[in-house]
Each structure stands twice: as C-alpha cells, then as structure tokens.
Amino acid sequence: MYGFLGWCTEVAYAAVKEGKFVNRGFLNGPICPVYGIGVGVVVQFLTPFEENLILLYITSTLLVTAIEGITGYLLEKIFHNKWWDYSNQPLNIGGYVCLIFSLIWGVFCVLIVKVIHPLIHKALTLIPLVVGIIIMAALAIALFADLYVTASGILKMNRRLEAMEKIASELKDLSNKVGENIYENVMEGKEFQEEKKEQLSNAKEEFKERLEEPKAIVDGFKERLEEPKAIVDGFKERLEEPKTIVDGLKERLEEPKARVGEMAPKINIEEMKVRMEELKARYEEMAENRTKVGERLVKAFPRMQSGQHKEILEELKERIRK
What we know:
The model is unreliable at about 260-265 (pLDDT under 50). The chain contains 9 helices and 4 strands. The protein has helices at about 1-20, 35-45, 55-80, 100-125, 130-225, 230-260, 270-290, 290-300, 310-320; strands spanning about 80, 90-95, 95-100, 305. Strand 2 and strand 3 form a beta hairpin. The protein has 2 domains: about 1-125 and about 290-320, no CATH class; about 180-270. With about 325 residues, it is mainly α.
C-alpha cells in the first residue's frame, strides 16, 4: 500500500515539475518498494513513540535516511548505476541522502504515523483474511516478476553501454592512428624538403665556382703559350666539367620525386575509413535501438549516473530527451 502511495507521490511530483506523466519508479509497475520498506519499518518500530512528537520526528528522520542511503548504495553496487543523486544539495552524504530531504521525510513520517496509517490500517482490516492472503500472494508474484524483468532490462542496458563504450574507444584509437600517420608524413616531408633545399643550395654554389674555372684556365693559357697542347687538352677537360656538374644537379633534382614515392602511408587509410564507418553504424544502431526498460528508467531517474560508462549514458539521456 505504501509502495503504491509512494509511486503516486513521485508521479504527482514529476507531473508538477515536468508537466507530463513519468513512470517514476524503479520497477515497471505502479510501486516504489523503497517507500513501502521505509514507511513499513517506521510504522512497525516507531508507533510506540507517537505520543512524543519530537522523538518520533528525530527517530523517523534518522531511520528513513538510513534506509534511503543503504538502498541507493546497494542499487549502485548491484547494477553499477546511481539512480538518484543529491550531490548538488548541501550536506549530502555520497549523493545518496541529503539534509533537506531527510527533514522532509521526517515530517511525512510523523503525518503517516499520527494521521494516515490509522485510517489505512482500519480500511485494510475490513478485508477478509483469506481474500487478503490471495491478494498478497498475487501481488507478491507480480512484484517478483516485475523485479526480474526490470533487473534483466538493466543488465541488458549495462551490456549495451559497455559495447558502445568499446566502439567509442576503438573509434578514438583509429582516429588517433590516422592523425599520427598524417603528422609523421607531413613532418618527414618537411624535413626532406629542408634537406633537399640545402643540398640544392650547395650544388648551385659548387656549380658557380666551377663555371669560374674556364676563365682562370684561359688566363693561364695566355701565360703558358709554351705548353699549348697540354693547356688545350686541359682546357677541353675543364670545359666538360660544367656539363658534369649540370648532370649531377639534374640527378639531385630528381631525388625528391623518388623520395616522395617512397613515403607511402604506413597504415592503410582506406581500410581504416571503412572500419570507422562500420563502427559508427553499429554505434548509431545500438544508440537508437534502446530497450523499453532502459528508456523508462532514464526518464524515471533523470539524474541517474553510470559508474562505468558516464559519457555514453549522458549521450543516451540526451537522445531520449530529444
């Protein structure tokens, strides 16, 4: 009964805040078990203090806070998701509980013990025992079936998040490899260009110096007329040197083209592009083909956080909101 009333309270709160119906419960059915457990424990153990309002308020506040904190902690450890988060509230403990909501729960518990529970208890005593047992058995079966379906849906959602995380990681690695390959080729090309530029500059200087030699030879030829044949032969040989220099210069100019041909990509860019497109398609398919349970839980717990796949879950939440 109190699990159902708690669910009604959450739905009403969401309707006022968001202006639409949201199934605000961990389970698919109209019940929030944490409310049933919390109020049940308060009614069972704190009714003897109902005459002392201060003691009733303090003990119920502490008890409900402990139940909420333990429930949030266990749900996170079991399903690796944080279903509610009070981290932005002052005086919170791990985001599971916070002072302002604990004080509010204390007020509600006092109202329940003093006003609401006596009325509900009186109404429930009108149900015949056998009928009550049948109803309880049917509701228990439905509750455990709902719990099984919800738990399976959460585990599927977690596996989907894990698979999407792996795809995103592989896409990032491929992107980094392509970028590194481009960077290395650019830097090698730049270094090679600087090297060839320096070599060409040296060759030009050498060629210029060699071109000056025929003039010196002619001057020497005039001075050494007594050795005409030797000088003429030497002159011919020296005149051939510029041609040799020019041929060497041509060969050096051809080197950059050969070197560029050697600078083939170290990785197969086309294969990587195909792989990246495949991964993007798989990622998009997984992001769009969401389970109904997972989508409902994201809507029911807008502040839900994933302990292992935070960024991927935030992206899915954004897609659902759109």
